[in-house]
Amino acid sequence: MWASRALVRSLAPPDWLSVNVTLRCNLRCVMCTTCYDSPELTTRELTGLLDEAADMGVRVFNPLGGEPLVREDLEEVIAHAVARGMFVTLTTNGTLLRPERAARLAALPPSRLHVNLSLDGDADAHDRVRGHGAFARAMAGYRALRDADAARGNPVRTIRANVLLHRGNLHGYEAFLAWLEAEGFSGVQQLTLFRDESDATVGGMWFTPEDLPVLDALCARLADARETGIGPARLLVNAPDDLRAVPRYYRDGLTPRDAPCWAGWKELYVNADGRAVMCDGTLDFLAGAYGDVRRQALRDIWRSDALRARRQVVKACTTPCIQGCYLRRESDSLPPIAGALAANAARPVEARVARTLARLRPPRPLDVTLVFEASARTSDDAGLEALWRPDVAPGARVSPAALRAAPEGLRRAWERGSVDTDRGFGGEELLAKVLDDLDRGGLRPRALWIGWRGDAGLHPALDRLVALGERRGLDVRVAMTEDFAALHPRAAARRVDVAGVPSGPCRVVTWDARVLTDPHDRRQTRIVGNAWEEDAAEVLARAYPPSTSSSV
Questions:
Q1: Is the pLDDT of residue 107 over 70?
Q2: Which of 77, 104, 260, 526 has its CA 20 to 30 A from that of 475?
């Protein structure tokens, strides 16, 4: 991606496809200038667009608006993206997320659909921005989705709050972050305002000179908390340096070197009417139109001379906006990329470079144990009773005591498809991807620990998971009870106590691809990445630099 920007070329597909599926909205927010009646792509056009994106290698789809839930076909569109192997991040104001819509979203895998809920402070601050009662309706939508996921037996879905830091929530901001943590939000994306020349105060939300000393102190505390992981500000997903840059942004003190913009490389953005758009250098997106998906193939738009011209404008931009959607810090300069070039091997051009580098250099040790959650299911009575698919009649289910006495009954249940392996089991594809990412990145963890919250012995393909680690020369340990060890002879030779955790630094990959830094964090409060959406080599290397030792 660095080379793509340096050469103003399309050497890699975009990180994600963002589509304004509609520009209609049920709210009238004071800072918004983008919601109006507009032609919209049909369901068929949207699913066709997703097919093109998936074929290009795009891994993430962001349905935007307007308010996406205004469209009744939204769930169908998202389901199509998931079926094409894409990850989806839905951004919504939450007010239309009623129980019936929540149930439809809950039918989509939590590992594939994440939700960003727009919240701009407590009820008073939020309603002054978005209208009376908007906060209560948004939180009702949040709870409806949490309830719908629980009713389906889903794991906890990633739901983040998108929070504008503004004049109206400045003084209560940290208390609001603590409240979001108590409510169970998975993270917080802090956003900055765009300044509209027609309204310099942005509806009274822009900071005054008197506010700036308070903003300075707040952002310094937020950045420190983000680095230490102490306090509710740890929910923030913004990088510490970007948090420290916020006061300079509001003083017009940022330079392009402070926040290089990746618009036109990181994202392919399609407006509701089908036009491909991007910032024109003055934050006017419609003025930056450069193609039309109704008339051109997506791949052709991405390689077009018109987009190259827009990219030249971005490279010359002197008004950095530090929006997270257009920052790509890992690609801002060449030195950190050189060590992780192989991490982009899924991308067509860079794959050849990655394979060459991996062959030319020995693996670099990482002083971490990779913990892979083969099963979140426990082997106590409650866990074994929960194994069965809902459509399996009670009379066809084997009791926990009978399963322990004759483990072959579990194997027969696997073969009949009676066990619900859709949820709670880490798949071979996920572990293989993580290990392949590490191979391409030239990195090797000190050990592979299979198992975490549940009993790895309940995984139907446990021996194949062990073999994946063994083929890479890793020291493999398997956390499982003795009850089901006979089903997995390869894993049984490497069995350790199911209640144990490895000593020393760890990286945990949960069954649904979340990446954690602490194996004791069973509530998953410190999520630092997603192994499906990101490159595992990048995630591990940025937290734990490779050891200088030559031993593994």
A1: yes
A2: 526
